[in-house]
């Protein structure tokens, strides 16, 4: 049995209805069908054809459509697979020297692979990486994000947090004295001027958004927020 969360959505509020269910053996069997195509790879008719085959692997007539990411989960030989896009990891995944940084941060535990459109070929690449690097715990998808695995759900969750923390620790240690993203382009308004603008603007804005249903505006002015540091 293979359960795959659909693309997008919020895991915090997801229910069983948000997951596609498939026969794992049938999804694995699609590899033989895929190999029959003379031309294979991203954006080929072969990959498009595989997406059309997922309904034939559906378990229990589940109406939830299988994600195009299905092979990314199905062909990794572990019970649980997390596919995440954490900011700290993306900073490494999008760096010009991303492969070298990946090795510096994770050693042999996380393997770099060049990103391609999600689909069957990328799933086969991940399967190959797992076979060639049996001690690896995850992969950085170049320019995109992180995918990692374990045989227990809590183990996989904790691994995800650990890999994100290691990326963030590396960024923090190499941030240097330069401001994030080159620093602010404009200065924030002083508090009295900020209040004057809000008092002038919010009643007009509230009237615009309350045309069909009355709305209440909430103002958030805290400076706290997630930070991403440039690499020195």
Could you explain the architecture of this structure?
α4 (87-93) crosses α7 (153-173). This protein is 41% helix and 12% strand. β5 and β6 form a beta hairpin. It is globular and about 70 Å long. The protein has eight helices and six strands; from the N terminus they run ββαααβααβαββαα. The protein has helices at 24-35, 45-53, 70-74, 87-93, 98-106, 120-132, 153-173, 191-209; strands at 2-5, 19-22, 80-84, 110-113, 138-141, 145-150.
The largest sheet, given as strand count, sense and whether it forms a barrel, is: 4 strands, mixed
Number of strands: 6
* Widest sheet: strand ordering: 3-6-5-4
Q: Which structural class do the helices and strands define?
A: alpha+beta
Order of helices and strands: EEHHHEHHEHEEHH
The amount of helix comes to: 40-55%
**Spans of at least 5 consecutive residues with low confidence:** 225-232
Coarse shape: globular
Mean pLDDT: 87
Distance between the termini: 46 Å
Rg value: 23 Å
> Number of DSSP helices?
8
Strand portion, in percent?
A: 5-15%
Task: Note the main attributes of this structure.
four-stranded mixed sheet, single chain, alpha+beta, 232 residues, 8 helices, two-stranded antiparallel sheet
Give the structure's gist in a few sentences:
This protein has 232 residues and is α+β, with helices and mostly antiparallel strands. It has helices at residues 24-35, 45-53, 70-74, 87-93, 98-106, 120-132, 153-173, 191-209; strands spanning 2-5, 19-22, 80-84, 110-113, 138-141, 145-150.
Topology:
Blueprint: E1 2-5, E2 19-22, H1 24-35, H2 45-53, H3 70-74, E3 80-84, H4 87-93, H5 98-106, E4 110-113, H6 120-132, E5 138-141, E6 145-150, H7 153-173, H8 191-209
Parallel strand pairs: 4-5
Antiparallel strand pairs: 1-2, 3-6, 5-6
Helix pairs in contact: 4-7
